[in-house]
């Protein structure tokens, strides 16, 4: 019976080619636009560190003074002062903890043929590597003792290692960063979590990768510049080690919710204690964010993209209304034909099924068109110079999702018209003919 | 043309008419808001930066010497750059509009007072105003003895020693509303700095909320870090050649350095607004797509109705209606449906705008956008229905005599 209904549907399409083409195009455009945006947002809100993210947290202690100047969009950036970060680092209340800051340094290649170049990396502390489970191709990280000794050691990412030492691992070799020689003790296996969740979240959160990691205290001793925001307030200049400049990121690993609660209490105690000593004048408590919550809080997905998604969904909505209207007009125009079928013994559900098949077919063809349009949309996204561009690929789930969405859209658009059409009173229609 | 028969006929197609009204309403609401966003973003794109954009080229240099003497290095480099044919003038600076090099300070009007505004520091060697082409509307340029080093190796303590500043008009009006800012003292650091001049426009290196976008102080601070941006003023047609030559000259002069971001100011601006331009393109495409789909929907439904009513049109014609009457009938019917849709759309537009104000800090939708969106949809509806209505008008009266 379904085959017969498909044939009837094709026959009906042939009778009104323009309207059928219009409906297919509308559903295709709507689905193409929506799926492009859904895919982009899907890949951007993915978990940058699957398996570990649930145990990673950001402690936020807002050290800023009360100020009549409104801070930009009221979002704390989570940066800590040196004093607070070192306190949290040295009390070691979490399973693992690391303070860090981004840096961009000139690299001097040993070979004379290569000119010096800038590379971006991070100044971190020992726990960074085990906490984030960075995959090592060779060697490993450094210890807390080396942190304290301001050791001149470095961990390179695969890209910089290849650039400096070719295919050989650079373990034991020397890399010159700015004006200081560092001994390479580890090489990462092309570690590039997307987004670079541990850094300050900004426009470069996607697409950027860190190529070197050196001990934070070494970088501080050598007065290496930091890349990113540093906020200072009050008098006394912009001193990095003071308690009035916030510039460090801090991450902790807490393996159970009980530990997370305990750490939250610890933060609250510290906050109250410091407040009693005249610091932290803002009426905001210390916070502890989980990794995924933190990315949401920091708007890692730009507002423009979310706006684009809503626009695409709105567009799909208008297309759907359009199709419902057209299908309704189309089905009701066939009241006579439907009445004849009903008079010959077809049940309401038969008519409903027949018209549903027709609507579903519009959805299917529109979905296929939408898929092509979504692939084209994603291709054009990939051509943009944005950092997230290369991520814009459709996976199997998205592919199936597109078809499911298309057929669901086609069927739900056909539902009301088919329902109305199968409730046409056959006697009345037959009489007027 | 009397209203009751049209309404009576529409009640026979309640659901279809309702769907069309909804579609028109939704389209109207979205298009009004999208048009507003487009205009808002185009305005951002067109913001004057205050500098002579078409005549500037920049190159960033980082000295890698252990014992680098930045102040000396900058003077030697600048002297060499000025000898390049086509270079009218050159300065060393750190902050420029759109270059993200934003060092902002809270500005107070008394020591330890509350910060009245946060403003960017524009530093640079002597002659920066002239090279950038800033327009001094009051006061004077800096005197040679007012320049002090930035102190980048000493927590940028130059800001506590510098005696004079030139501020933007926006900042002057924020700090001293209705007063003459010349001669007044401000405190971006620990010590007072006297305002000696006012420029009309200068955008900050990063985007800020609209009112804060021009809160800037130009200070006679000499860049003294190892990395610095050389800004060259040339005729627009010389820019590319000058940049190539500048790279060669700087490398020849001192090889142990990294040169980056050799570009014209227009490239810098284009990169800064890249996302904005993409967004404008998408918004325009979305609005156009919506309007086209809605127009096609109106036309499609109208032609269905015309086909369905051929017999009744024939009867109307046979009993004396002119072609014009039939045409008017369909046009008026469309006018009613789209009109209802547009009224619904205007309300939805404000609702949507409220949501956007809540989530995206979008300003309130001004009335003219809704009026224009409504008119546009009305016209579009009439245009879309014209074809089917003309077809209806051409139905001959003889149809009435045939069986339906």
Automatic annotation (TrEMBL), chain A:
Residues 312-424 form the ABC3 transporter permease C-terminal domain. The keyword Transmembrane applies. The chain crosses the membrane at residues 21-44, 309-332, 352-378, 398-419. Coiled coil: none annotated. Residues 20-259 form the MacB-like periplasmic core domain. Keywords: Cell membrane, Membrane, Transmembrane, Transmembrane helix. It holds the Pfam family MacB_PCD. It is found in: Cell membrane. One of its GO terms (cellular component) is plasma membrane. It is a multi-pass membrane protein. It comes from the Bacteria. One of its GO terms (molecular function) is transmembrane transporter activity. InterPro entries: ABC3_permease_C (IPR003838), MacB_PCD (IPR025857), Macrolide_Exporter_MacB (IPR050250). This is FtsX-like permease family protein. It comes from Dyella choica.
TrEMBL record, chain B:
It is a multi-pass membrane protein. Pfam families: FtsX (PF02687), MacB_PCD (PF12704). Residues 29-220 form the MacB-like periplasmic core domain. One of its GO terms (cellular component) is plasma membrane. InterPro entries: ABC3_permease_C, MacB_PCD, Macrolide_Exporter_MacB. It comes from Dyella choica. Residues 286-396 form the ABC3 transporter permease C-terminal domain. The chain crosses the membrane at residues 15-39, 279-306, 335-357, 369-390. This is FtsX-like permease family protein. Belongs to the ABC-4 integral membrane protein family. Keywords: Cell membrane, Membrane, Transmembrane, Transmembrane helix. It comes from the Bacteria. PANTHER family: ABC TRANSPORTER PERMEASE YTRF (PTHR30572:SF4), MEMBRANE COMPONENT OF TRANSPORTER-RELATED (PTHR30572). It is found in: Cell membrane. Its main location: membrane.
